[in-house]
Structure formats: C-alpha cells, structure tokens
C-alpha cells in the first residue's frame, strides 16, 4: 500500500499506482478480507457500512486510474461512471448507518452545536443519502460531490480531531482519523470527476 500510494505522487507511475490500489482494495480488502465478514455478518448493517468504506476507496482509485491512464475515451468514461456509481451507493449506505446506529452517531456530534446531537446525526444521514442519489442520478451531481467532500472533511475537524486530541494514544482514534482523511480524498476525487461531465 505504501509503494502504490507513493507511486500515485509521481506522474510517470501514477496510473500504475492507481491501478494497483484499485486491485488491492477490490481483491484483497473487499473480497478476501470483507468477503468472509459478509458471509458471517450478512444480517448486520454495520458489515455493509464497513464494506462501503473500503469500496469507496477502490472506486476513487478506479476513477483516478481511468482519468490519467491512456486507455481510450470509451473505457475511461465507463470506468469513471462505474467508480461514481459505486461511490454513490456507498454514500447511501453511510446515510442509512447514521439512522440505524444513531446511538453511536449522535455522541460524535459536538454538544455545543445548536439543535442537539440527534438532530445533526439525522441531518448528516439525510445529506449522505441525498448526495448518493445526486451522484447516482446525475441531478446536481457535482454540487452533491462537493458538499459531500466538505461534510466528510468537517467530520475530521468536529468529531475525529477532538477525539484524537483527547486521547492520542488510542489506535482507534488514529485509524478513524486516517479513514476520514482517505474518504475525504475519495469524495474529492468523485467531485472532481464530475466537473468533466
């Protein structure tokens, strides 16, 4: 993962790095690691939420690969669309998780925000679903992608950041912050790809 992530940083190896990350997340993370979790936890919504997080990373890597490699216009369009559609579905799954796991979502909202923690848990859940629908249908898709990127980034500032500062020795807090940063980047990739539509 470190080598492929570094490869994306250089123009000459970026397409290779994006293809390798897409393959890694699609095969090793989604199929091999999460596939067995899906079999054992198919009735648990959280299983789908976790898979959606990994799928979103694979989808954004696919979009990066499609847009920077020399694979032909028709294939670029198909792969980019596939990545966007996968990401749109992921966004809707995350929105559903906000409602199903409100008891875990609401406490992450800062108490100082007006209207209460449950209110903001519901608002962000609706926003995830609306963004997913926008990306899937193409209705205000670019705006949906931009606002989704901003919302996920705000989670890093308002939820993950304070948790990390409060307990920097917690591996969970570091992992959640890193995942939030990765998903912010993934949403940004999707939003940027919609600029070409």
How would you sum up this structure in a few lines?
It is built from eight helices and no strands.
What attributes does this structure have?
0% strand; 197 residues; 8 helices; 81% helix; mainly alpha
Task: Describe, in plain words, how this protein is organized in 3D.
The protein is mainly α and 197 residues long. The chain has one domain. It is 81% helix and 0% strand. α3 runs antiparallel to α4 and α3 crosses α8. The longest helix is centred in the middle third of the chain and has 28 residues. The chain is globular. The relative contact order is 0.10. The mean pLDDT is 93. This is Membrane protein. It comes from Tunturiibacter gelidiferens.
- N-end to C-end Cα span: 30 Å
Structural class: mainly alpha
Kindly provide the radius of gyration, computed on alpha-carbon positions and rounded to a whole number of angstroms: 17 Å
Largest sheet: none
Tally of separate helices: 8
Number of domains: 1
Quote the beta fraction.
under 5%
Low-confidence stretches: none
Strands, count: 0
- Rounded mean pLDDT score: 93
What helical percentage do the residues reach? Answer: over 70%
- What is the 3D shape? globular
Please trace the helix and strand order, writing H or E for each element.
Answer: HHHHHHHH
């Amino acid at each position: 993962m470190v080598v492929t992530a570094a490869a994306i940083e250089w123009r000459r190896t970026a397409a290779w790095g994006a293809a390798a990350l897409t393959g890694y997340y699609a095969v090793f993370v989604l199929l091999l690691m999460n596939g067995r979790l899906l079999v054992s936890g198919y009735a648990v919504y959280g299983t789908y939420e976790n898979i959606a997080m990994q799928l979103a990373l694979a989808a954004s890597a696919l979009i990066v690969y499609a847009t920077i490699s020399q694979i032909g216009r028709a294939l670029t369009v198909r792969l980019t669309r596939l990545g966007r559609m996968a990401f749109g579905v992921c966004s809707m799954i995350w929105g559903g998780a906000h409602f199903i796991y409100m008891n875990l979502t609401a406490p992450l909202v800062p108490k100082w925000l007006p209207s209460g923690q449950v209110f903001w848990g519901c608002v962000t859940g609706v926003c995830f679903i609306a963004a997913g629908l926008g990306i899937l249908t193409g209705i205000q898709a670019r705006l949906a992608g931009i606002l989704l990127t901003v919302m996920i980034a705000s989670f890093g500032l308002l939820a993950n950041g304070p948790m990390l500062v409060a307990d920097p020795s917690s591996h969970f807090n570091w992992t959640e912050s890193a995942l939030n940063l990765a998903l912010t980047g993934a949403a940004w990739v999707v939003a940027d790809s919609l600029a070409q539509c």
